[in-house]
Amino acid sequence: MTVLNRMAVALAADSAVTFSTFANGHLQRTYASGANKIFQLSTTAPIGVMLFNNAALQDVPWELIVKSFRTSLGSDVKNSVQEYADALSEFVRANMDLFPPAHREKHFKQLAARSFFYLLKKAQSEKPVLANAGDASVQQAAIADFLASEIATNAAKPLSPTFVDADVAKAKADHAGWLAQEIATYLAGAPQLQHLAAVIPTQGFAELAIESLYRFYEVNFNSDYTGIVVAGFGEKDYFPAYSELRYYGFLLDRLIVEHVESKAINHDVEAVIEAFAKKSMVDTFLSGFAPEVWSTVNGLFRVHVNQLVSGLNLAPATAATVPTLIATAEGEFAKAWSAQVWETHYAPLNSVISGLPPNEMAELAETLVMLESLKEKVTQRTQSVGGPVDVAVITKSEGLVWIKRKHYFSPELNPRYFVRQSQ
Fold first, then answer.
1. SS3 labels along the chain
2. Average of per-residue pLDDT values in the chain
3. Confidence of residue 19 (pLDDT cuts 50, 70, 90)
């Protein structure tokens, strides 16, 4: 949760995080409720970072990554928040100690295997003839048709700017042989799939899996990403800003990191409040109605107008124009009532937030996180929100100041820790 006005940035985060591992062809997630999700990104500059979703980047904890970057940054300062975000990305990309080549290759192989399993499941879904043993020639034709279709799908999907064609070609040349052998071994060893061992061209399927991994990496990472929010002030910033990024991980030597959005306070934008990951309660707080109300109201408007019209005895020429008229009326209705909500709820709220002092900004951010946690606890019973809430405020002059912060140890028993921190 971030709350920004011209004075400060308030960051608040719960302690629930996800750890993801890949085993036996399946993505496995475990949850923890004592994680740190807010960190000081520099020892000297007013800049911080907050994470959500996954607490590790391909098995390396983000807490370790951020603190290592902070040490590496030293007293260096950047002119803008985006420059800090870019520097963090470059630190991760170039760090061969945290992410050595063998580690990157191990995770590439796991992702390539995941891509194969995804394609195999898709082939069996689209071609039911592959589900059980049968006519080999018919099944070979089905596989050939599936491969041709997927190759065409890949050709129509442009590569992300992260990659170039040479990356895909090299990955195929270096790893398709290994993956083909793994596919053959897997098919031969799975009783329910042994009939496919003789009809699936393992080399072609392996090359398709690697190509698809690069073209559709979001599918193969299966939402296994870390959201990173870098927030605060650059050296030349008078007003705060934040930059949101999404880290998926490495495909060999390429780091997949996407810039989602950036927002900044300026002379025209006086306040910003933004939630990340779970945000339904925040959207309700900001808009004055729950997100599902939008579709419900507009849907009921459409239903009742159609019922009204159906009861009228309209001439054929007039009836032909009714769908267009209803669509136009629905759009105008939605625009009118949402504008009314904006004027009566959001605009005054935004004005209030713009004038909040830093301590009240922190209280607001914490309260919204706790509301989201409470909603999840009593409605969905998920493990993705919960635990103690950490709160920090960043100002241009004071830097990052902790309002609430948990420790995994008792401060009273560890005075030397605080002595070391002060040195």
1. CEEEECCEEEEEECCCEEEEEEECCEEEEEEECCCCCEEECCCCCCEEEEEEEECEECCEEHHHHHHHHHHHHCCCCCCCHHHHHHHHHHHHHHCCCCCCHHHHHHHHHHHHHHHHHHHHHHHHHHCHHHCCCCCHHHHHHHHHHHHHHHHHHHHHCCCCCCCCHHHHHHHHHHHHHHHHHHHHHHHHHCHHHHHHCCCCCHHHHHHHHHHHHHHCHHHHHCCCCEEEEEEECCCCCCCCEEEEEEEEEEECCEEEEEEEEEEECCCCCCEEEECCCCCHHHHHHHHCCCHHHHHHHHHHHHHHHHHHHHCCCCCHHHHHHHHHHHHHHHHHHHHHHHHHHHHHHHHHHHHHHHCCCHHHHHHHHHHHHHHHHHHHHHHHCCCCCCCCCEEEEEECCCEEEEEECCCCCCHHHCHHHHHHHHC
2. 90
3. low
- Residues 47 and 232: beta-carbon distance below 8 Å: yes
Q: Do 123 and 105 touch, CB atoms closer than 8 A?
A: no
Residue 124 to residue 139: CA distance in whole angstroms: 11
What does the pLDDT look like over 139-183, one tens digit per residue? 999 999 999 999 999 999 999 999 999 999 999 999 999 999 999
How far apart CA 158 and CA 219 sit, in angstroms, is: 15
User: For 375-417, what is each residue's pLDDT tens digit?
Assistant: 777 776 555 566 789 999 999 999 999 999 988 888 788 888 7
Q: Report residue 235: phi and psi, to 5°.
A: -60, -35
- Flag whether pLDDT at 24 surpasses 60: no
pLDDT at 419: 80
CA atoms within 13 A on the CB side of 239: 15
What pLDDT sits at residue 25?
Answer: 53
Q: What angle do CA 120, 201, 153 make, to 5 degrees?
A: 55
Residue 161: how many CB atoms within 10 A of its CB?
A: 7
The HSE-up count of residue 131 (CA atoms within 13 Å, CB side) is: 5
Whether pLDDT at 344 is above 90: no
Nearest to 206 by CA among 186, 232, 227, 231: 186
pLDDT at 27: 61
User: Which residues face 187 on adjacent strands?
Assistant: none
Cα-based distances in Å from 214 to 160, 372, 421: 8, 35, 44
